[in-house]
Specification:
Shape of chain A: flat
Helix content of chain A: over 70%
Distance between the termini of chain B: 85 Å
Number of strands of chain B: 16
Radius of gyration of chain A: 24 Å
Order of helices and strands of chain A: HHHHHHHHHHHHHH
Structural class of chain B: alpha+beta
Number of helices of chain B: 18
Largest interface: A-B, 53 and 61 residues
Structural class of chain A: mainly alpha
Radius of gyration of chain B: 26 Å
Strand order of the largest sheet of chain B: 2-1-3-13-4
Number of helices of chain A: 14
Strand content of chain B: 5-15%
Number of strands of chain A: 0
Oligomer: heterodimer
Shape of chain B: globular
Chain lengths: ~290, ~500
């Protein structure tokens, strides 16, 4: 396939150069964060760009693990991510599939209802009243139930299910399947890539839960890792518009901030490669006309 | 297919486990009324400071013992404090004591009667009433007091400077815009660090140079004779940027910028960066507060052992004149939705008062004896484990009531530390208050931020030479038309109604 003419080679070379540069721009911040987290505070204080620690130090990691809070919040986040994503997938697929079947009566009405929630939201305080009225405040359910179905994902998944030819469904029925069996044995197995994609979308959302955790959880032992991350990292930069307050706040050294960033990002980065092949397939599907 | 079934079985099991675990986590109800004679149950919502202390840690236990209460503290992250509080206020799900910030949202809730007015009760409580009245005035709403402020010094505006640099260049502490300009020029071109390069600054500005209570521009302008943000000039409410004294300072920075005596990237530079530059020995002047002298000195001498940091109040043609600060770091208010009776209100106030008794005050300011601090031979106290203090005591101290030096043993400190503590008290007499601090203006609540950004951008444009003096005057005109005149009028009315 490769073009062997000089012009083609030049084109390839230029492409490689540009793509490598873009890749570097994407990767360098990660390397910097990782390197700083392993560098001794003294070297960081001296300043400059650190891409490889000259003085290795695990002090930052020792510090963040010295109390159980960070590990605890990580476990909470993992729990919310795993259970929350399962809830998302179960509710989204079981709602999307019936909506994709054109023979369902009242389907347009339900879809309109879904669309309205995409355009108008209740806002922070009414949503809080709903969550609180359902008795969900201060439980981890408050992070999973209100966001069980994303309207956007639901519609995309509905369109995906619609691509499954009704002939397949018909033949399954002739073989004796009822609607539930068609869903579990035909529709779900055929939509692996799409479900993997949404699993990734949903799990990243859960992983990044910050604001809801602050709003709905009063008990700090249930906070997710992003709440801690935000306290430690963001606070140091914004200093709330007032530099004289600095001495009144606990500003963590850069190495510790970076170690927390690494700690909070690592799990999702470890999961990504395993979902990536589905992810590529799932995203590409829409671009191929079937 | 079997593999898929297995997977679904696992996920169903995980989900079931999750359902059970989630249920187990549901919270039992809030703290109830205390029985007579037993400790008073007090629930509080406070700002998170650093790590959240473990429940029932030694400090909290002692505080409960000293005040005869049972505390239930809810910590809220600073980064979402006001949002969380607004939700709590809207849903009336409030603890008995809540730390509030003096922001329009809170003020509106106070005006609609959600909180107890505690002003009339204060005289009954010896510790609460012993504090400077100004602290209370600064959190008042329409002249009435609805909470106990977290007391902070009002006259602590200072700047740190490199004494070794000033001495080397043979300069005195500047006292007017011309002298500031000369000092700045000397710091940039006189090579005070002796490395043969013009790589040092006096002041370095950051993007917050004109916002917030510690804005450098405001502080220098106040020293030069201007009002502190808002003041009464010739009987009329006046914003500072219309004052000639303010314009002088603004023009000084314009000149510095033009001659490249000031960092050219100030409009986008973060405040913490400037702090780092001071610590690294790049800057000679640091906008600061009195109590920060010690830590500045220690940080700088780590990088440069020969460096000498000293501090001074902002001095102007009329001597020291400081931009006074609000004197509080938020305040503790008592919601009517959770404290229903006057009796209970009095008990809660008694708890707040007890917190300033000698044993509790020492606990909050110094920690636990022989754990965080120790007595010295000369009758003072010395912090022995500063890291433990920061981790275990500071979260309580920063959120509860304390006044350094009130019912507490004196602290033995480094000379810089003692100077800082002393100056914060002594300089109170030079503090110029912001007259509009507790005044109300509908226009200001609604568009105050917008108006401030508007005039702040104009200042930056003027310093950077994008507009000339006529342009600056035009920007003030625009500000007036965009709602500024309305704010002035409403502040004036509010001022007149309180100072009849």
């Amino acid at each position: 396939m490769r073009d062997r003419t000089p012009g083609g080679r030049l084109f390839d070379a230029v492409n490689y150069a540009i793509l490598s540069a873009v890749a570097c721009v994407c990767i360098l911040p990660f390397i910097y964060v990782l390197a700083v987290s392993f560098t001794s505070p003294e070297e960081v204080a001296r300043g400059g760009l650190i891409l490889f620690p000259r003085e290795w130090s695990l002090a930052a990691y020792e510090y963040i693990f010295s109390t159980g809070t960070l590990t605890n919040s990580l476990l909470i986040t993992v729990y919310v991510t795993v259970v929350g994503t399962l809830i998302n997938l179960i509710f989204t697929t079981t709602m999307a599939y019936p909506l994709s079947r054109t023979r369902l009566r009242g389907r347009q009405g339900v879809l309109l209802g879904v669309l309205i929630t995409m355009l108008f939201s209740g806002g922070m305080i009414p949503t809080y009243f709903v969550v609180s009225g359902l008795g969900l405040t201060n439980t981890l359910w408050s992070l999973m139930i209100p966001s069980a179905i994303s309207a956007f994902n639901l519609i995309v998944l509905k369109n995906f299910f619609q691509q499954i030819p009704s002939e397949v469904e018909d033949s399954a029925k002739i073989d004796g399947c009822n609607d539930v069996e068609v869903f579990f044995r035909i529709a779900l197995p055929l939509s692996g890539p799409a479900i993997a994609t949404f699993a990734l979308f949903y799990s990243v959302d859960h992983w990044n839960t910050f604001f809801n955790a602050v709003l709905y959880l009063n008990d700090s032992s249930k906070w997710t890792i992003q709440v801690y991350l935000r306290e430690i990292v963001i606070l140091a930069q914004s200093n709330i518009g007032d530099s004289s307050r600095l001495e009144e706040m606990n500003i963590q050294p850069l190495t510790i901030r970076m170690a927390v960033v690494v700690f909070a990002t690592l799990p999702i980065m470890l999961v990504y490669p395993f979902l990536q092949k589905h992810f590529v397939k799932g995203v590409m599907l829409g671009s191929v006309k079937g | 297919m079997t593999a898929k079934r297995w997977w679904m079985g696992v996920s169903a099991a995980v989900l079931a486990a999750g359902v059970l675990a989630g249920c187990a986590r549901s919270e039992t109800g809030g703290a109830g009324e205390a029985e007579d004679g037993g400790p008073l149950a007090v629930s509080m919502a406070l700002t998170q400071v650093g790590e959240i202390p473990a429940k029932d840690n030694a400090v909290e236990k002692l505080l409960e013992e000293y005040t005869e209460t049972e505390l239930d503290i809810q910590w809220i992250p600073q980064s979402a404090y006001d949002e969380k509080v607004s939700v709590m206020m809207a849903s009336k799900e409030m603890p008995k004591i809540i730390k509030l910030n003096y922001v329009p949202l809170v003020i509106n809730a106070i005006r609609s009667g959600d909180f107890w007015e505690i002003g009339p009760y204060l005289p009954e409580y010896p510790n609460l009433s012993a504090q400077d009245e100004q602290h209370y005035k600064n959190i008042s709403v329409e002249g009435k007091i609805y909470g106990v402020p977290l007391f902070r010094d009002m006259g602590r505006a200072t700047f740190n400077y490199r004494k070794d640099w000033l001495d080397k260049l043979g300069l005195d502490i500047p006292t007017n815009p011309d002298e500031w300009y000369e000092a700045q020029k000397a710091f940039v071109t006189g090579d005070p660090d002796g490395n043969g390069k013009d790589d040092t600054y006096g002041w370095m500005l950051d993007k917050q140079y004109n916002t917030g209570i510690s804005a450098l521009l405001t502080r220098l302008a106040v020293a030069n004779g201007s009002v502190n943000k808002w003041g009464i000039v010739d009987g009329k409410m006046t914003p500072d940027f219309t004052q000639p004294e303010f314009f002088e300072v603004l023009s000084m920075f314009r000149r510095m910028y033009e001659e490249k005596l000031i960092n050219q990237d100030f409009a986008v530079l973060d405040g913490s960066e400037v702090g780092l530059k001071f610590d690294a020995g790049t800057a000679g002047f640091g906008n600061s507060v009195a109590g920060a002298l010690k830590s500045q000195h220690e940080r700088l001498t780590k990088a440069d052992p020969d460096a000498v940091v000293d501090n001074s109040g902002f001095i102007g043609p009329d001597g020291i004149r400081l931009a006074g600060e609000p004197g509080h770091n938020g305040f503790l208010a008592i919601p009517k939705s959770s404290v229903k009776t006057e009796d209970e209100l009095k008990r809660i106030l008694a708890f707040l008062d007890d917190m300033m008794n000698e044993d509790a005050a020492n606990l909050l300011v110094r920690g636990i004896k022989d754990v965080h601090y120790a007595d010295t031979d000369d009758g003072k106290t010395e912090i022995t484990d500063f890291d433990a203090f920061q981790l275990e005591v500071k979260p309580y101290r920063d959120n509860l009531l304390y006044v350094e030096g009130y019912n507490t043993k004196p602290l033995k400190d480094t000379p810089q530390g003692e100077k800082g503590t002393r100056m914060a008290k002594e300089n109170l007499q030079y503090a110029v208050p912001n007259e509009a601090l507790t005044l109300t203006s509908a226009m200001y609540s609604e568009r105050g931020n917008e108006l401030e950004t508007m005039i702040g951008d104009a200042m930056t444009k003027y310093i950077m030479g994008e507009i000339d003096e006529a342009g600056w005057q035009k920007e003030i005109e625009n500000w007036r038309k965009a709602g500024g005149d309305e704010v002035i009028r409403e502040f004036q009315e509010s001022y007149d109604s309180i100072h009849k």
